[in-house]
Amino acid sequence: MNLQQRINAFVKLGDFLSQFSPDGIHKKDTIEKNDLFFDGFKHQIKLAEEHNAWFNKENVLFSLDGWSKSLNNSNINKWIEKYNFNAVESKKVAIIMAGNIPLVGFHDFISVLISGHSVVVKQSSNDKHLLPFLAKYLEHIEPEFKDKIEFTEEKLTQFDAVIATGSDNTARYFEFYFKNKPSIIRKNRNSVAILTGNENENQLLNLSEDIFRYYGLGCRNVSKLFVPKDYNFEAFFKAMYHWNPIINQNKYANNYDYNKAVYLMSEFQMLENGFLMIKEDNSYSSPIATLFYEYYETIESLKEKLETEAEQIQCIVSDGFTENEIQFGETQKPMLWDYADNVDTIAFLLKI
């Protein structure tokens, strides 16, 4: 199977996924193998939500819509144009996936396959319905993928390299267990937003998407704000308010009630609006339904701090703060060339 065959297969997968978006699920007559897979995938979306209440239909469709927009000829060719795939000797790459948001390990999955390697996937129990079905679709579109894709729930044994994502604790285990294999080991990271007080209403509205999408469970979700001294949170809370229906989700509401009780009993100072609490805290990783904030003295001192603590940060959302910043509202819309932890997955896969 040559590179163009692999590209063509992923473009067809993108076409298939284009039928599933937050605007609705609409079957298209032009999609290859659609009679075999369309209704089945609707069922998998339903199963994913029943199995994991965090994976509500809106969030699953948001994820699928993002992938459908990424997997087209233009984006795929832009992604891979700087690499040389000619000398790749096919290896077996194990992927240990997290399960915090729908299809969170999909980029690693397509990276391994586009590189010409075989993949063995160990999924999280929280996210096990969507990817195997999409893998089956790929195998029907391009039968040469059939010997390239494997899923397992057993202990990983036969593989040449590994990409593993987990908490800081599991990362220490991964680093020890896979110390003799080429590896990418991903730990906890969080995203931050830099506010100056000059943000317009639209920017703050967009920021709410970075905070609440996927209930804040992703490493690209903003979990902390940096604000200037005497920052007035009134405009911020006003922009957040249209997300208030989120409190109707039971798991989110339970976390909100629990964390609010902990803060009140501990006499921590915090502000809240009935579905979001903000608390001054030096940490980056805030609990569900909570957003941490920290004051900064000067932009220069903040830049120095964030450079020192870069290994804890996935994305910086800001307007004119830094070269690699992400615009408000764009954290959950990464491009194919936006690598997690800024580790070039394709470059790693081409040298194993």
TrEMBL record:
Domain of life: Bacteria
Keyword NADP assigned: yes
Keyword Glycoprotein belongs to the record: no
Name assigned to this protein: Acyl-CoA reductase
Keywords: NADP
Gene Ontology biological process terms, A to Z: bioluminescence
UniProt-recorded Gene Ontology molecular function terms: acyl-CoA dehydrogenase activity
